[in-house]
Amino acid sequence: MLEDKHKMLNPKCVHFLTLLISLLSLPSPTISQSSSLTNFLHCLHYGSDPMVSQSIYIASNPAFQTILQARIKNRRFLNPETLKPVAIVVPTHIDHVQGTVICAKDNGLQIRIRSGGHDYEGLSYRSNVTFIILDMSNFRSIDIDIKTETAWVQSGATLGELYYHIANKTNTHGFPSGVCPTVGIGGHFSGGGYGNLMRKYGLSVDNILDIIAVDALGNVYDRASMGEDLFWAIRGGGAASFAVVVSYKIKLVRVPNKVTVFTKGFTLEQGATDLVHKWQQIAPNINEELFIRVKLQPSFINGNQTVTVTFIGFFLGRREKLLPIISKTFPELNLTQQDCHEMRWVETTLFWAGFPIGTPIETLLNRTIWTPLFFKNKSDYVKNVIPKESLNKIWKMTMAMMDRNDINKTRFDLECSPYGGKMNVIPESNTPFPHRKGNLFLIQYSFSWIDEGNNVSFNNIEKLRKLYDGMAPYVSKDPRECFLNYRDLDIGSSRSNETSFDDAKIYGRKYFKDNYTRLTKVKASVDPNDFFKYEQSIPPIN
């Protein structure tokens, strides 16, 4: 821990000199960039553990590009136009985090904090001003305590790693988080974090007991020392606006030895419209141990365009208990024993990630399962049942996202995740995440493609924006609510180096509703000079 930011330690000069020599060979840096970076490196080396030099990568380092790209999940930002960081710090000790914050602040360098790199708009690894990346991927330890039903998990671990380590200790516990195993804990928890356990247990942030974080002055706090205001803010309010979160203490939740999953698909010609209309009324109100997601995709079958609707289910129990519930509440689904698969909770995390049944759980430890694609995502909340005639309009908009020539080049999904259950019980102000009672379901619009080129990306993003505009009559209003974990710069943003209070209020109310004002007050108390900022950060209240 840095007791004095100017404290002198016994340096291991070979690493530091190597960095400085490498710095001199950088291609045409501006004087201010070169000076800021040199001073930053000097400050960090002499004000922190000297071994931090081994965790710093600048552009002339052969590993720089590999480390930069390793956690860039959106290929839209793997291009020459995207400004690169002047350095990447991959800390291995909390001293390194403290030193990075202090030295970056002292030398006018912006920090972008990255855990898994899944920020949809790439804000954890890109900026339009001189910046460094604080890459937390080495902070990945997970300590499970079954006796107390808790765990400490560091922010650089992935959801898959957390699920794997829980399963190595117990078959009767889980944790309510997302379905993508490569997502980093830090970013996921920071925005709220949800998955198929949320109707029973709420969000990830509803099950966080303690946090270790580094503030803008380099101080290390836990929940007791940071106070309840900051603890509240960094559980769903975008932690990167307030501090660097190092680790979380979470409450594990109980699950049966065996749970049940299913998928059931229909086309429009097979009655999908009636089923989706019924699902809207059933899914948010059904047994809270049952979660049924709907995925809509444009498709071509026998040369004819249609929409395929897939119902994906998760139930905290065996199939013999599930089937009577479905038979009573949603018989139109025609669910059979053959559709249902019983397995351990940890195995369902692979099923929901799209892996075949029987995939080894060690797959959860693989951080590079999928090849990055170009993509753009958006989100919405639905508060009233969408009528059938309106669903037919939505099908037309959905089919317009793809034509025959796009079948192997693009993919569009419209995912609907039901609320209700525990989500109706927890007050909106309990955490910064406000989307609770009154929501039937959350929509995620996901559009991905493989062809390169700025024109391709522009045209595809415009397609998605047109569909999003067309959905306006059917979703929340004043504000049109959005989910922070599904970050979307279209809803409003500030400049990289200056968080406008007026601009921030636009996106802030969409993400946080009435909780936005409290967030700005917390920001003013813990980071009044707005060191931690990015295009959608929280500003200190004026």
UniProtKB/TrEMBL annotation:
Keywords: Cell wall, Disulfide bond, FAD, Flavoprotein, Glycoprotein, Nucleotide-binding, Oxidoreductase, Secreted, Signal. PROSITE patterns: FAD_PCMH. Its main location: secreted. Its cofactor is FAD. GO terms for molecular function: FAD binding; oxidoreductase activity. Pfam families: BBE (PF08031), FAD_binding_4 (PF01565). It is found in: Secreted, Cell wall. Residues 81-255 form the FAD-binding PCMH-type domain. Transmembrane segments: none annotated. Residues 1-32 form the signal peptide. Belongs to the oxygen-dependent FAD-linked oxidoreductase family. PANTHER family: OS08G0158400 PROTEIN. This is FAD-binding PCMH-type domain-containing protein. It comes from Gossypium tomentosum (Hawaiian cotton). The lineage of its organism: Eukaryota, Viridiplantae, Streptophyta, Embryophyta, Tracheophyta.
